[in-house]
Amino acid sequence: MQVMAQAQTVSAAPRAKGLWWRDVIGIMLIVICGAAGYWLFPDNLALLTRIVAVALLVLSIDLIVGYCGVATLGQAALFGAGAYAAGIACVNGVTEPMTLIAIGALAGATAGLVMGAIMLRAHGLAQLVLSIAIVQLFHEAANKASAYTGGSDGLAGLMVSPLFGIFEFDLWGKTAYLMGFALLLLVFILLKFIVASPFGMLCRGIKQDPVRIRAMGAFVFPVLLKMFVISGAVAGMGGALAAISTQVVGLDSVSFELSANALVMLVLGGLGTLYGALIGTIIFMGFEHMVSAINPFHWMTMVGALLIAVVLAAPGGLTSLAEKLRGGKA
Amino acid sequence: MSDLFRVENLSKSFGGLAVSRNISLSMAEGERLALIGPNGAGKTTFVNLVTGQIKPSAGRVVLNGEDVTQLGAVRRVRKGLVRTFQVTRLFSELTPEEHVTLTVLQREGKASRILSRFRGNSAVADEVHDILATLGLLEVARRKVGQIAYGQQRLLEIAIALALKPKVLLLDEPAAGVPSADTPRIEQALERLPPSLAVLMIEHDMDLVFRFAKRVVVLAAGGIIFEGLPSEVAADPKVREAYLGNYANARSVA
Amino acid sequence: MQTILSIAIDALAFGMVLFIICIGLSLTMGLMRVVNLAHGAFAMIAGYIASYAARDLGLGYAVAIFLAIIGTIIISIPLERFLYRRIYGSPELTQVLMTIGITFCVIGITNYFFGPTLKTIPLPQALSQPIDVGFRTIAAHRLFVIACGAVVAGGLWYLIERTSFGIKLRATVDNAAMSDALGVRTQVVYAISFAIAIGLAALGGVVGAEFLPIEPYYALRYMVTFLVVVSVGGAGSIPGAVIACLLLGFIDTTGRYLMPEFGNFFFYAAVILIVCLFPRGFLGRAQ
What we know:
The complex is a heterotrimer.
Chain A: H1 2-40, H2 45-68, H3 76-91, H4 97-119, H5 124-144, H6 146-149, E1 155-156, H7 174-195, H8 198-208, H9 210-215, H10 221-246, E2 248-249, H11 256-269, H12 275-294, H13 296-313, E3 315-317, H14 318-329
Chain B: E1 5-14, E2 17-27, E3 32-36, H1 43-51, E4 58-63, E5 66-67, H2 73-79, E6 81-83, H3 96-107, H4 122-134, H5 150-163, E7 168-172, H6 183-191, E8 198-202, H7 206-212, E9 215-220, E10 223-228, H8 230-233, H9 237-244, H10 246-253
Parallel strand pairs in B: 3-8, 3-9, 6-7, 7-8
Antiparallel strand pairs in B: 1-2, 1-4, 4-5, 9-10
Helix pairs in contact in B: 3-4, 3-5, 4-5, 5-6, 9-10
Chain C: H1 2-32, H2 39-56, H3 61-87, H4 92-114, H5 125-128, E1 130-132, E2 137-139, H6 140-162, H7 164-174, H8 176-181, H9 186-207, H10 218-221, H11 223-233, H12 238-258, H13 265-277
Antiparallel strand pairs in C: 1-2
Helix pairs in contact in C: 1-6, 1-9, 1-11, 1-12, 2-3, 2-4, 2-9, 3-9, 6-7, 7-9, 11-12, 12-13
């Protein structure tokens, strides 16, 4: 028995190490992609920064949908909360970029707390409808409070001071891109730790069977609420980054359309891996940029057809494909 | 007050339909009790009432002298009142090792930590290893639960329950659906349960019941109709009627 | 008094438009358990067909409505057969994605053919005049819409409660597997119900064009409204849908009249409150 147990421990160890190395390689690939974007598309850095900001939003959805199994079509409420908080702070004299990001994260986390507390009261369709109603309510509130938010004209004229007092936010968006990319990388690594923690495992358990989790003696609601707060902070940082880099916050940053698009990006890339969120965002927004320029309606047809294809080709969405691949490798 | 666990006049009705009527029973530390009864007798409902999945219409559940009737399912688990499920409820994408690790971490209050590693605690890892070894699950410890045999899934149900260090364990048909060739492994696991643990087992397999339990309670139509030694149960006319209908007593007269 | 009355009439008419469109969605969601976000897309297709028939071909209003309903149902048949049947019983996320996909495709394709402009459906003379009801005048179109809503509600009630198809439908809603075993051809029941639902969406899309204008992003713009109405009323319940439509129609219209600067704020605030209090909708079935 003892010998067998020894063999088990020994055989298990390299596997865990292999997973660890896979993440290191993955993160290195992200760095390479980020650097390649910087060198290859110096004229499109504004778009790339936008992709980074939306990638943070999509990552935040993955935390809730992919890891907790809570379907949401209202995540832009958290993104918009961060964007408006940073924007309003900036207009009122807080111009240090890292502080603005922190303000965005805080606002997003607070909005996540509220959203989670409301959404987690319901299940299924009612939950989905609540998520939509919340983002619409945020949208109307932002529109109404035009004294603070600029209403439908948007909140314009954000003057952000140089990063660390040295790096100006230049016309080409170099500083914004590099700052955004560093932020994304940091958040990604942090999230990788979070989803690999006991808390992350608890969430995966809740996604599969909350009754079992309760029978293990763990409360479900506080765990999910915590994830909503973390998710809100991530989305809020994305919003703040978008505000800083474009120097304007529009009503579209807190819209149902953005929420739905971000969910589509996540599903195209694959749920529950964090990598899928990045891949989906890049592919979606890259193609959107190219095709939309020709005709926005062609773009809608394309995305629609792609979504239908994903659902039909892999009846659990890309999730099942991704898991099949992972299962094959393991 | 020597009882570790006591149920008093527990009743539940849905609408006008009484599914549990005035159930009272008590268990001492280390007791092995079997709860049997025909299909639809309300056995699983009883487990759900005791563990807090559903709220009783009347009655009390007392654990260690403390009334836990008003507590929810989670708090009862934390007090040591633990169950397994008749149809296994496991996470098909996780491994047995992950199931038990998560359970042990939860018991220690470390399951919702964000910035620690899931396998970072060697004391936990040792305990998980011991539990899996006791139940003979080591060779499948790192396989996804969806890919292991059903008998092993049933053993994992017990492993999770044990990882909670319960005082009272309710086993809801631990051998249901297991191929007969694997039943001995389940039985072996049951024999190895900690001696001080009070175990209430629901089971249809009478051989298993008679070998395991020192006392048997029979439930029919939501109420207790028999309580006594395993050797007496088969001869009881009420039990015979519950299982076989009036037909049984007619036959026994003839 | 004048204001109150005109708000009431508008609210009632708007509520009826919502009802005609949403009752089909409510039935399919109650019956087939499909979160069909593309429901509004069918109303939009009908609006485009009716606009083309009435404005470009110069056909009558009644003919345009008829063509729109028939045309939309014909378009929906292959979609039901090849796409929707695959997602009956799938997780909500899958259904949401598939039906968003269908919505995007409908928007993209419709605009490819008809161009990205607002489509009007000219009303016939009789409906565009005000009608004198003694103490004041009311737009005839409002009365027409309210009448349509009443006819749809009554017709559906009769269909479901008084016909043999209704019995099969209710049996299938209760327990599809059992009905199948009892010889009800559930696939046929599904297909017919789906066609009825689409037909009603088409009718609502055309007669409701005064309230919900037919424009390129119609399917996306009102997707949320329709879904919200159904979940507030409770999927599968006709009385629930009536209550939800009238209540939400009232809240929305009153809000627009009295506090236009708040937009849909009160609408969504009410929705959050109602869904929190009644997670299955007013008259939804217990799960």
